[in-house]
Design brief:
single chain; 450 residues; alpha/beta; 6-stranded parallel beta sheet; 18 helices; binds nicotinamide-adenine-dinucleotide
Length: 450
């Protein structure tokens, strides 16, 4: 099929490469000319496992092209996907202006019938609104459909190639046929995995999915707080409830709170939609509040571990909002660092992939270390904020020797508290029994280690 994808971010670039990989002829349109030049040279502007080979192989095979001009892509394509940003507007709603702008431009440029598919996460009613806007300017029929994207950053290529489901919001039988053909290669493995529904239901499905996942995270963070108060271990509780098939194991990990470019933004937009329509969204509101509180809680743990922040040095392992991505948008680690800097601490951070993005945010206000141990050097506390594999089994003796005051705040519960304290490091996790966090000889030993 001849396709165009507008936007070369995490969604647009992955969709372009994966559509090309199954034999489609794809033009990916990006307004940022510098980004296009880099992409043409297979120099990816973002990190996503497995993406770089797909981009270079499909460019070499002539199935994937990058362009700055929408007109070229509209002339080429039978199906045009919109994958531009829908950031938070000042009132909390999703700002769909980029989506509408692209859709109207497609409508004006179209010279043959086309299907316009909204992949950007857009609030309920957007597909209908965009369809009306396109109808008003187009001289040929342009069908507009919703196709929200459910990929996870860090596993985006795999999610796109093997989706749990593909949701298409359309009332058109013709669009249904085209989408069935297009997605067939990705939905071969078992079951009826292309779900057709009306556009409004497809739009709500995307927000409801993210709200559900965020709810599980906040739920576990609240249970973790209770575990700390009563002396229980949230890891045990998580296993205990996750083995119930009605509950399942996914998304039950307590931590520094959810972040990234989707959950916080999409929950805010959902709250706004509810408020606009007079629907009480108090559960979603609570999920958001718990999440914000969790960030304060992790900050409090770092303060307690370091003793004081003014004039102290804090090491931070992990800057990305989750492992296997370089995305720092709304990352809990970034929020923590801002608070630490405000409190007068010096921050030494490390991340395997996200340091260039962090450098853009902090300049030289944060010292970015080339390896994790260098970040820990002379620190008064180490906060582990992202669950990168490289942080999973560190040399605790080396950490203890490097730090001025050996204390770890394990924001992802990666470590065995006993193992950490054995190395003479004070341990503080999320929702874990405090007695497991006290090293032999007590806390004072660490303060005077060097
Ligand atoms: P992004 O910010 O990484 O990328 C958007 C890209 O679109 C940018 O490169 C921007 O320059 C480009 N763009 C904007 N206007 C353009 C125009 N008129 N013409 C050409 N290019 C234009 O965004 P993203 O993370 O890929 O997300 C895109 C959408 O998908 C959002 O609505 C988001 O909520 C949704 N989504 C994101 C994810 C995710 O994990 N990132 C997952 C599912 C859904």
């Amino acid at each position: 099929m001849r396709l165009a994808v507008v936007g070369s971010g995490y969604v647009g670039l992955v969709a372009s490469a994966c559509f090309a990989e199954t034999g489609n002829d794809v033009i990916c349109v990006e307004r940022d000319a510098e980004r296009v030049a880099r992409l043409r040279a297979n120099d990816l502007p973002l990190f996503e496992p497995g993406l770089e080979p797909l981009v270079s192989l499909n460019q070499a095979a002539g199935r994937l092209h990058f362009a700055t001009e929408l007109s070229e892509a509209v002339a080429h394509a039978d199906v045009i996907f919109i994958a531009v940003g829908t950031p938070t507007a000042s009132d909390g709603s999703a700002d769909i202006s980029q989506v509408v702008e692209v859709a109207e431009a497609v409508g004006r440029l179209a010279r043959k019938p086309a299907v316009l598919v909204l992949k950007s996460t857009s609030p309920v009613g957007t597909t209908a609104r965009v369809a009306a806007a396109v109808r008003a300017v187009a001289s040929v029929p342009v069908e507009v459909a919703a196709n929200p994207e459910f990929l996870k950053e860090g596993a985006a290529v795999d999610d796109f190639m093997h989706p749990d489901r593909v949701v298409i919001g359309t009332e058109s039988a013709a669009v249904r046929g085209i989408m069935t053909d297009l997605y067939a290669p990705y939905t071969l493995r078992g079951g009826e995995r292309i779900l057709f529904m009306d556009p409004a239901s497809a739009e709500v499905t995307k927000y409801a999915a993210n709200a559900m996942l965020a709810t599980r995270v906040s739920f576990m963070n609240q249970i973790a707080a209770l575990c700390e108060a009563v002396g229980a271990d949230v890891s045990m509780v998580r296993t205990g409830i996750g083995s119930d098939r009605r509950i399942g194991r996914a998304f039950l990990y307590p931590g520094p709170g959810y972040g990234g470019s989707c959950f916080p933004k999409d929950l805010r937009a959902l709250l706004r939609t509810g408020a606009d329509l007079g629907v009480d969204m108090d559960l979603i509101q609570a999920v958001e509040q718990v999440n914000l509180r969790q960030r304060d809680l992790v900050f409090g743990k770092v303060l307690e571990s370091a003793g004081r922040l003014e004039g102290s040095t804090i090491a931070v392992w992990g800057l990305a909002f989750k492992a296997e991505t370089d995305d720092v948008r709304d990352s809990p680690a970034i929020a923590l660092i801002r608070k630490l800097l405000d409190a007068g601490a010096r921050v030494q951070a490390h991340d395997p992939k996200a340091m260039p993005a962090a450098r853009q945010l902090f300049g030289d206000h944060v010292c970015l270390a080339q390896d994790p141990y260098a970040a820990a050097e002379g620190a008064d506390a180490l906060a582990v904020m992202t669950e990168w594999l490289v942080y999973r089994t560190p040399d605790f003796d080396r950490i203890a020797a490097a730090m001025r005051r050996a204390a770890i705040v394990d924001g992802r519960n990666l470590y065995d508290p006993h193992r950490v304290t054995q190395a003479g490091i004070r341990y503080c996790g999320i929702g874990r029994r405090p007695r497991e966090g006290t090293p032999p000889g007590g806390r004072e030993r660490h303060a005077t280690q060097h």
